[in-house]
Design goal:
alpha/beta, UDP-N-acetylmuramoyl-L-alanine:D-glutamate ligase, 9-stranded mixed sheet, 9 helices
Length: 311
């Protein structure tokens, strides 16, 4: 049984800098590298590296980056049979600056990702039946996200939405289609219209999202932990303390591990712990997909932290 990710795939162009540039400032960078990314592809690699059979549906351009991106997915164990090559477009690009504290600024150029339409949704619909979950993000056209969520709902497939990049005024019809939504502080604030400046504000945001029809709302607060709100309960999971060097794919690592845990029958609370651990591990390494942990690394990390807490 395989999990499906429907979303973006980019080549990340990463510049390391002493601090994030201010308006009009020219900085001398310290390093540059390219690495496969895109929120959809990152989440696909995250689940595949954790041992979950993973299929990816999306588009690349007919360029050299597209070839490299497909090979990278395949090398990570992701099934790419349903990935379209759009020869009339360039592949998606993300231009990323990362400072010495691991904070980042990102510019995304959609390329082929922005051309995803009913053709891709039809491909997705043909492989949904019997799948445990579909992961979605906002780096592809909103119309395709809504159509994919509707198709998953019709097929009885759990929908996990990472509402990133942050957007306000998403279609109200999308909320009831979502089983789990996982915004960070910025994304949650955009969705609910008030600042997420405390744990209680995060809980209020989660309730707001559930009131709109979402079954489970998870708000990621970075180093301040994670809150979760459902119709039956609300709970908090503290963050794992690590030395962060690059937070680029931490959110994708979280979603991948969350989905992997749920596919294996773990509780929502256990799945959030997996997500928090995977996100913390990703923040300790440079790059997007290169920073994603495998199953052994995740289990070792969780075991070590459990032993530390019990000592």
């Amino acid at each position: 049984m395989s999990l499906i990710i429907f979303g973006s795939i980019n080549m990340d162009l990463v510049a390391q800098v002493p601090h994030l540039p201010r308006k009009g400032e020219t900085l001398q960078g310290t390093n540059f590298f390219t690495t496969p990314g895109g929120k959809g592809a990152n989440q696909a690699v995250a689940t595949a590296k954790l041992g979950i059979t993973t299929e990816f549906v999306g588009r690349v351009g007919g360029d050299k980056f597209g070839e490299e991106l497909i090979i990278s997915l395949q090398n990570s164990g992701v099934i790419t049979n349903h990935l379209l090559i759009d020869k009339s477009a360039n592949s998606g690009i993300a231009i990323i600056t990362v400072d010495n504290h691991g904070e980042n600024k990102i510019i995304v150029i959609a390329g082929a990702n922005g051309r995803i339409d009913d053709t891709d949704v039809n491909i997705l619909s043909q492989i949904l039946t019997g799948k445990p979950a579909l992961l979605l993000q906002f780096e592809i056209p909103m119309s395709a996200v809504v159509a994919a969520a509707k198709a998953a709902k019709a097929a009885g497939v759990m929908v996990i939405l990472d509402p990133a990049p942050a957007q306000a005024n998403i279609p109200e019809e999308l909320y009831p289609l979502i089983d789990i939504i996982t915004p960070n502080e910025v994304e949650a604030a955009q969705l609910v219209g008030f600042a997420i400046d405390s744990q209680e504000a995060a809980f209020l945001a989660g309730k707001n999202l559930c009131d709109r029809g979402v079954k489970n709302a998870i708000v990621k607060l970075g180093e301040k932990g994670v809150v979760c709100v459902t119709a039956e309960e609300r709970f908090f999971v503290p963050a794992f303390k690590v030395n962060a060097v690059d937070t680029v794919a931490a959110g994708d690592a979280f979603n991948g591990a969350l989905a992997a845990a749920l596919c294996e029958g773990l509780t929502l609370h256990q799945a959030v712990v997996w997500g928090a651990a995977a996100g913390a591990l990703a923040a300790t390494k440079l790059g997007a997909q290169a920073s994603l942990c495998d199953r052994d690394e995740l289990e070792k990390f969780l075991k070590e932290r459990e032993e530390t807490n019990n000592s």
